[in-house]
Amino acid sequence: MRFTDSHATSALCTPSRYGLLTGRYNWRSRLKSFVCPGDSEPVVEENIRTMAQMLQEQGYQTAAVGKWHLGLGWQLKGGYDFEKFGLDTEEFHVPGTRMGRDGIFDPSVGLIDLEGLDIDYSKPITHGPPQMGFD
């Protein structure tokens, strides 16, 4: 396969990766612009076929190397573990609605200063590169 003439749908990493991986314009996804937070849920919906899945179906081996930045199917704790990281809960505001969670990908709706405090890192990721067609 040779790409000889390509264009990005966005100047930012998340939207352009989404376009390359799915073959869809990023503004047709839940993320219209901007970049996913590091602890975001996947912006690629489970019912969307990816280029990696199509290549696997044709017998190719695939790999995801480097920065993913399309969100992951994290398993969450039930709250924020400020104490584990030595942080004072009074210093940090956690918005009720957060970008990258609960299907919300609007950057004007609550960004958090610290990401990942509610992720259970002992549990496996449920939706990420392997589920999107990468070996």
Descriptive account of the structure:
With 135 residues, the chain is largely without helices or strands. It has helices at residues 13-22, 51-57. The model has no long low-confidence stretch (mean pLDDT 89).
Q: Would you kindly provide a brief summary of this structure?
A:
This protein is mostly loops and 135 residues long. The chain has helices at 13-22, 51-57.
Question: Which keywords apply here?
Answer:
135 residues; little secondary structure; 2 helices; globular
Secondary-structure blueprint:
Elements (H helix, E strand, L loop, with lengths): L12 H10 L28 H7 L78
Shape assignment: globular
Which band does the percent of strand residues land in? under 5%
Structural class: little secondary structure
What's the tally of helices?
2
Q: Helix and strand succession?
A: HH
Mean of pLDDT: 89
By oligomeric state, this entry counts as single chain
Number of extended strands: 0
Low-pLDDT residue spans = none
Q: Write down the Rg.
A: 17 Å
> Largest sheet at a glance?
none
Q: In whole angstroms, how far apart are the ends?
A: 19 Å
Report the helical percentage. Answer: 10-25%
